[in-house]
Amino acid sequence: DVQLVESGGGLVKPGGSLRLSCAASGFFFSNYSMNWVRQAPGKGLEWVSSISSNSNYKYYADSVKGRFTISRDNAKNSLFLQMNSLRAEDTAVYFCAKSRLFDYWGQGTVLTVSS
Amino acid sequence: EIVLTQSPATLSLSPGERATLSCRASQSVSTYLSWFQQKPGQAPRLLIYNASNRAPDIPARFSGSGSGTDFTLTISSLEPEDFAIYYCQQRSNWPPTFGQGTKVEIK
Fold this sequence. Notes:
Number of helices of chain A: 0
Oligomer: heterodimer
Structural class of chain A: mainly beta
Number of helices of chain B: 0
């Protein structure tokens, strides 16, 4: 079965940094693009970033461009999101999702940015 | 970016009734349109991709239709577990975008 497990969330002060991880299993991780999607409290879904299977292509939402960096380690079946210069409006549940179809999602990890 | 507008915002129906949810795109997305279901405290689940293809293990009561700018998700007969929020999403153009969601609630 496909499984995606996010980790690394927590409470961070504005201006701080955090690195999220997503551990993948049950499929050939290196064959698929991967995505990060976030959901602010009580709000809808917002795409954050995507990375191609071989890391050649990386895409970012304008709201995070220049502050967040997506990466992956195909040898370790892992996806990452390095988040710098965090703002209160980055507070959300962060989900990783598999492939261009977003066909499988993890349960999410919570990021709270507050002083 | 392509804006997806879902209607209605809330749909109040009883179990057994038919649900019809709409998603309209600000420009053509061909058939690169997906539907997701999200229950409280859970991750979204892919229901429909490419406008009309059911994802694996999705019951046949869920169906999608449309192309271009107008799309519909139909639940033929609501089961108790179908009361949730539904989002459409396009992947025709970068960035991928989501609609604001339609909440299907028990009447």
